[in-house]
Amino acid sequence: MRKSSIFISAMLTMAVPAIASAQDATPAAPATPAAPDVAETALQSRAGLIFGLFTQAVRSDQISDRDKDALVGCMYEYPLKTISEETGKVLVQNPELDANKPQNVYAVAAAVCGIRPNAAAAAQTPAAPATPER
Fold first, then answer.
1. Could you give the maximum distance between any two Cα atoms of the chain, in Å?
2. CA angle, 103 as apex, 98 and 107 as ends, to 5°?
3. pLDDT digits (tens, 9 = 90+) for 70-114
4. Is the Cα torsion angle 81, 82, 84, 88 positive or negative in sign?
5. Residue 52 C-alpha from the chain's centroid
6. Contact of 120 with 64, CB cutoff 8 Å
7. Which one has a higher pLDDT value, 21 or 115?
């Protein structure tokens, strides 16, 4: 019995301060998430646009199966955030491309994913001779 009472008193000695300090602490107010900045909002908006454009392209009959596979593979391999960031970099480096036009965003995002929009047309067009003919 003596050993039990010593053990219980030792446990209470350790537990009472912990319980008291837990009761004294006021619950912290939940932290409100910071509002996203303008760049983050633009990045998310462009990512959503790219997803929608790629989805439309995959459903289109005008896009080759090879290009459709490349689009799906790109979205599978890379997060939309990465595709959107790289697309944004290209659009900033080329101010002649209007970033507000979805066709420009699609063309750049597809190029970022390795799709060349005029590759099929270029393959069908005969190459110009290396030296001009006389």
1. 116
2. 95
3. 999 999 999 999 999 999 999 999 999 999 999 999 999 999 999
4. positive
5. 14
6. yes
7. 115
